[in-house]
Amino acid sequence: MTIPLTIECTVDFRRRRRRRLCALRTRSSQSVGRVPRVAQFMALAIHFDGLVRAGRIADYAELARLGQVSRARVSQIMSLLHLAPDIQEQILFLVRKPPGREPIHLAQLQPITQEWDWRKQRRLWHGLVATLGNTLDNSQQLP
User: Fold this and answer.
1) Among candidate residues 92, 90, 102, the one with its CA nearest the CA of residue 135
2) How many helices (DSSP H) and strands (DSSP E) are in the chain?
3) Domains of the chain: which residue ranges?
4) Alpha-carbon torsion, ordered 29, 98, 45, 65, to 10 deg
5) How far apart are CA 109 and CA 129, in angstroms?
6) What backbone torsions phi and psi does residue 34 show, to the nearest 5 degrees?
7) d(Cα 45, Cα 121) in Å, to the nearest integer?
8) In Å, how far from its chain's centre is CA 86?
9) Sequence-separated (6 or more) residues with CB below 8 Å from residue 103
10) What is the pTM of this model?
11) Average pLDDT over the chain, rounded to an integer
12) Angle at CA 13, nearest 5°, toward 8 and 14?
């Protein structure tokens, strides 16, 4: 004889730890690790620029309000668009890394974004990659 069993409990669906949710998402994907933060910032800058150009967002100040960040932070992220296209591409395709210390930080890229000559940017980028050495994958080190 079977006796019906009823279990009652409360379930909280609020997000508590963003880091944990991201880790779960990356485990389900085929590639292991997480996308470096500067690559996320680069993708955001390109996406935000598209929104502003299309007229869906009025300006960077509105982006800051919507994202609940300072206008200065939005400017830092958007400054990545001043990089040479090949540097942008290399940043976007940085190898996924296991959780831990980031190989490249946005602060390290800011001096490069302030240089308008792409040849000088490339020299600065080569210098940064050379100083990072083993923290980047061999495929990302430039000739």
Assistant:
1) 102
2) 7, 0
3) 33-95+103-140
4) 90
5) 11
6) -130, 160
7) 18
8) 17
9) 36, 94, 97, 132, 135, 136
10) 0.70
11) 81
12) 140
Supply the pLDDT for residue 39.
92
Chain length of the chain: 143
Question: Angle at the Cα of 15 (from 34 to 95), degrees rounded to 5?
Answer: 5
Q: What is the largest CA-CA distance in the chain?
A: 82
Distance of CA 63 to the CA centre of its chain: 17
pLDDT in tens, 113-128: 999 999 999 999 999 9
Q: Which amino acid would we find at residue 111?
A: P
Q: Which of 43, 37, 30 minimizes the C-alpha distance to 88?
A: 43
> Residue with structure tokens 């923290």?
135
Q: Given this model, what pLDDT does residue 21 score?
A: 42
- Residue 81 is encoded by which pair of tokens? 């668009």
